Amino acid sequence: MASCNKPQLYLTTIVLTVVFLTANQVVEGRRKGLCARTAYPKLCRSLVKGSNPRLATLSTICALETKTRRAIANAAKYKKGNKQVTICHAKLRDAAFNLRKAKNSLNRRHSKMLRIFLTRAVSDYGVCVNAFVDSHQVNTVQNAADDLRKTGTNCLFLSTLIRRRSNRRRKRN
């Protein structure tokens, strides 16, 4: 009888292995699915865990807020005597304000305002980057602003994947 159970044990082990590997691929596929169509998928995957667009947007906004605060502090060190850094410092502060408003809009489930504030933040980062490009300067403030612009662009895309509850209810009825 022990020999009869041995093939069943092997078959069970193979089935469980296939199920486990398939489940991992599905989870990874969902995560890649959120980031696959973003402008910067590799950057997105480093910030997004899971497959919920709302949580992905929230985690990306939180990462943007943290990185923006660091960039503001860095720009404050170098803004004296450098017009581009002064412009960038002001725009980074504007972006921080817009990110706070975006987070509030997300919490209130107001998707239109969420996208408006995220668009403003991305625009603020873009103005900062362009100030350096126009003056042919490359420095840590510009590099941080460019990274923030890319992350903000991904965040804006992720926000478009959020579905409002009221829309789902209307479609079901």
Automatic annotation (TrEMBL):
InterPro entries cross-referenced by the UniProt entry: Invertase/methylesterase_inhib, Pectinesterase_inhib_dom
Lineage: Eukaryota, Viridiplantae, Streptophyta, Embryophyta, Tracheophyta
GO molecular function: enzyme inhibitor activity
Signal sequence, renumbered to the chain: 1-29
Source organism superkingdom: Eukaryota
Organism of origin: Brassica oleracea var. oleracea
Coiled coil start-end: none
UniProt protein name: Pectinesterase inhibitor domain-containing protein
Keyword Signal attributed: yes
Segments traversing the membrane: none
Domain Pectinesterase inhibitor: 26-158
Record keywords, A-Z: Signal
Gene3D superfamilies: Invertase/pectin methylesterase inhibitor family protein
